[in-house]
## 1
Amino acid sequence: MKLKGILQNMPDFKSSRAEIQQFPYALPPEVWEKVFSNLSPNDFLAVINTCHEWRELLRPQRTATLLPLVLPILLNTIDLNLHDVLTWREVSHGAKFVVEEFWKSVFSSSQTHFDTLSKQCWSSVHEDPELRFEKAQNLLEKVTCCYTFQDYFGIQDFLSHVNPRSLNPAKSVMHTQLMSNYIGLTLAEPSPNNEMEAVELDFQKQTQLSLLNSQFGYNISALSINLTHYTIINCWAVHFVGLLEHVPNLKILRLSGYVAYSEDKRLLAKKFPKLNHLELLDIENYREDRKTKVSLTRQLISRYGPQLLSLICGENLLFHVDRKVPNSGLPNLHLLLFKNINCGALNLLSQMDWPLESLQLQVNEGEDHYVRLGNFFKAVNKFGPTLNHLQLAVHLDQLVGQVLLNQVNRMTMTVCPSVFKLTTEYSNICTSWWWTLVQAKFPNLVELEVHMDHASKWDMIFPKMAFEKMSKLERIFISCATPPRGFPHRQRITRRSIKQGKRVRIAATTVITVGRFAKNVTGLRERKKHNCLIV
Amino acid sequence: MALVRVISSDGAAFLVSQRLAKRSGKLKTEIETFRKSSDNSEAQPEIRIVTIRAEILRLVLQWLQQHQNDPVLPANQNEQDGRGDAEMGQSQWDRDFLAPMDLGIVMELILAANHLEVKGLLDITCKLVESKITGRTVDEIRTAFKLKSDFKGNEEEQTRLENRWCVEN
């Protein structure tokens, strides 16, 4: 009957334009209310922006419907507190969805994961509250803790807490959305004292793990597995592959631990599941017996290598990549973080044609003297055509083969034209050959980030030199772990601020005048004593 | 003085100086795009904002007018040079400006400030909503936003259990 009424009120579409314009008002308000009852927040906004009558009609629903649109902006703007974010999840379905999307963007972004890890190695590690993911970093750590299970009993505890029925395998388990999209598992090997107990425990483990994964697996995009102790379980790798079958939407896979198992032929026969979304592999802390021919690392790279975009590794990679395969089976690698780099690793890198966009090379302190500077640049040169961001967490001046100015030309034969961002340690800037090298090698540099650990090194002479030497350089960030009192941890200097001699206020008592450059360094030192820098 | 016509979703046109308009990141980009595509450098740019209605657009422009001499806060937060929001503070004018607005208008203003990339306005409006949404119980938030629970099946119970897991651990 209602529909009949609506149809009677409908205007004749052949009628005049004026009548069509009247159309929105031809229906009774309660019908419009019904029509608009299921609008998405975006459509709702479009409707209330369209005409006054509809806006008035929908006024009571406005705050409720717009909340899912405003919440993501709030999540990015205000300081977050775990309790509040959890409360928002309980408010409505729409709010819950927004919060979960936010988690997803933080937890399952391989770029975020890469950025977080690549920041950790610098001498001046500090929290930068301005960076979006760092605003959520605190929360991230807390939530990660909640979903990192130390043992199988932890998983059991969780399952019985969130869904008591799921402990009964006879009941069909439903796929439930997990808040974090992340699961961390710490697996320990069974106690070897009592064989029967160990077998029993093993069975329990498998049941718990598969329960966890069958219930939440579809929703998990980041998985971190940590093997405690020296693990000699023969079937670990085979079990692990079985575990992967439950997580088809995995994006980030992190393995850590030391595994020493005898060659496991069963791994060769094992079919690895399809993980179409997998893009980041973090094996930096995963060690396998280097004599093992059928290593899990090798199998993972050969199976998922072509789809991997990011890799976080250490020198352990060297023992498990198949050098006979072109590009070692990683043809699409865009982000690479190589820790503890050594000569062997540099040689491997200099043979690869990976389309790297971001590269971070890290040498452990004290091991610098095993690495040759020549090899180092040979590796960097290889990625010259595609590289955008190069991070040198290396004290180049301590590497073997200190450069003489006339050698710089030889090293810089390959220009890296697309590198626009360079991050490095302050000690490198201080070498006599640094600017000659950078000028020749990275002519299109736009951003330079310099890390220093100590406030005493806080001298601002190099920014002016940098802007003079590098014509395209626009900004310099100086990060300092322990900056002078009142100074920020991260200072931004632009070409414009230097040109204008702009006074940059940093703290109430300290003034840096960028631009009126120190005419004599002695004066600068004297002023330093008075907690005031004139640069 | 160079002017720009900014048109709201419901067709109201506002004539503002380009200097003022450029304090919004979005309008600045639009004006620059117009300059590049137009042959006549004297032509007056016309920008249509399809997602903001006149009432809200007027408020944004009013706020911009009042704050036209403030230093521009970079929209891209990475670019910020160590100056905290706290330093900028909320002026008495801002408090009087926001006082008569109901929550719905403030929410629309947040969406508009976010769309037009007006960082200062976004900060003060978010602060206002923050006070209504942080440190509150589920029921208090539902009352403030006139929300009804729309969970299906045992979703609400499941969410509560999972939240409790996070709080207790």
## 2
Amino acid sequence: MEKLSQNDTPIHEALKKHCEQRVVHFDVPGHKGGRGNKELKYFLGEQCLKADVNSMKPLDNLCHPVSVIKDAQRLAAEAFGAEEVFFIVNGTTAAVQAMVMSVCKAGEKIILPRNVHRSAINALILCGAIPVYVDPGVNEELGIPLGMSVSAVKEAIRKNPDAKAIIVNNPTYYGVCSDIEEIVKIAHAHGMKLLADEAHGTHFYFGEDMPASAMKAGADMAAVSMHKTGGSLTQSSFLLCGKNVDSGYVRQIINLTQTTSGSYLLLSSLDISRKNLYLNGKDIFKRTVSYTKYAREEINAIGGYYAFGDELTDGDTVYKFDPTKLSVNTRNIGLAGIEVYDLLRDEYDIQIEFGDLGNILAIVSGGERELEIERLISALSEIKRIHGTTKAKTLNQVYIEPVIKNTPHEAFFAEKKCVPLSESAGCVSTECVMCYPPGIPIIAPGELITDRIVDYIRYAKEMGCQITGTEDMNVQYINVMK
Amino acid sequence: MELWFTETHTENVRFSIRVDRQVVSEKSKYQEIAVFDTKEFGRVLTLDGYIMLTEKDEFIYHEMIVHVPMAVKPDIKNVLIIGAGDGGTVRELTRYNTVENIDMVEIDEEVVKVCRKYLKKTSCSLDDKRLNIFYEDGLKFVRRKKNEYDLIIVDSTDPFGPGEGLFTKEFYGNCYQALNEDGILINQHESPYYSEDADSMKRAHRNIARVFDVSEVYQFHMPTYPSGHWLFGFSSKGLDPVKDLKADEWNRLGLKTGYYNTDIHKGAFALPNYVKELLKDE
């Protein structure tokens, strides 16, 4: 086989060739290139339906890659500086879960910041590992959780020398990075694996002057949401592995839960996006950073809003700040972030990533046009003019130290009863409650529900946050341990 | 040899003009700019394949966009124009000696260059001393202004392409803020006839009506625009376009016009039922 370069897209090219060959299909999917479902074809486009095929000899098989998928994964590994890359089509959730389950089993400890995404907590429910939470530290003024300080990680290791791994958010949803290079060294010195949740960190691998990427820092595994800022289709993702990882075992773990009918729309989108990032990533993220820098300046000039950035860095809980993030604190215009989020959406047809109690987050990826950046800034200026007050919003606490009574696995599968959320203080929850987005649990299975937590959830609900996680779709009741 | 320029008005309707020769065609950062000579309409300017103006009928558009507000508030002194790179709106405005300052914000400098060179009929007043031209995004420019202007004229292209931001609620809100307390906003308001244009018109009206106290719509005939039936919006913080018309005062100025007169002014605000219906829906 001739040597492939980053200009190649093996899955995409094989798929194109397959479509050109006009193969007769007596296999799934049953829409047969759209002929069997015309409305779907008209909506999504004929090309899309034609490319939606099942695994077959010339297209390889995601569960057991030996040809084009293997080649594409090789190219991705080269592009990201990883030993091995797995293409994931079940969302970054699947990558995070595979990562956790690859390094720890039931009863083993894993050190992680409490502000992880629910997918990490869910991995603990599935595999029975015991979480050791590190307080991520909080910026009181902004009301956002930060990163883990090196000293807090050292302390957690000292108390739990038997832990198997450490998870680092690189970066958090808000753009905060921990000192991942140092934490990798400490983890390895203690025989622990370092896992990075890089759901929001794809650009670290390609942009200039970015915080360190997990692979560069020497991490063992990283879950990278290619679909978030990398340009691939929603639900497609990469799991990156470093040197000392048994990739065969990782593949077995992935195959426990990942589909056996990997979507070629998603796979080819990963393939093409990897090429695009490798060839154009530097320019794309340069444009992104110039947009966010401009927007931060303009939004701060409106007054009241605080679009925060690099000035937050303190070499500790905010080791680095992701320059592509456009996070804006809204409390000094007298509105909760979620209220601004709703106004942007309902009054100005502008959809941003999320609003929490004190902040909004807009994702900028370089795919925007200048006029759209102007629209966002102008709409924020209008929202202040029409809805703003001078009374700063009082902020509820943002980080509630969890009191862990059971492992997430024990609690989730325990005998349970259903109680009104308002009367649940003192009980041990068997499920997660979170605002979504960002999807960071306010309470996780196995944690003691306190009055503060009940208050916090009620307040977030009042402000209009979308609360999710409980079996009760209205989140008025919660399942707790008997 | 026959050469025809064709604009697609809807998926099923096309409008064609026989072209004598193409004068210029170039691509700017924002759009494709072209100028043709035609027998029927004289010189024609198109942006991204859409007719912006022709020498033969531009007077209708430019008179109606300028004289209507000027006849309601003859003491207008400070004016902001967004778009209008061809200069036609400026030409009409500079006929008023009482206008003291005109800020024109055009995103595409190339349009102005092309018009200065090839469309002298509209660009003839672009060197007026009272005029300041800013080449930047209108949305950005107006956001920084508070209580400054007596009149804002949004002489924009369509709500797709570079003019998109000029049909949004945030833009109209920023205009409201930039106008002084009896200020007037005039905007290019699309057409009620073909459904796609009508949707843009309805959206624009809804967005303006949510911001301004008075938001009326008036019509004029534009032979080279889709359906020929076109609208401008008149919005203000209180002034009524018909009740507050200063007809005698305007007529005393003795301006010679080809389309506008104070009777047309009143009549233009009388709308067909189907247009009223479209506006009411929102």
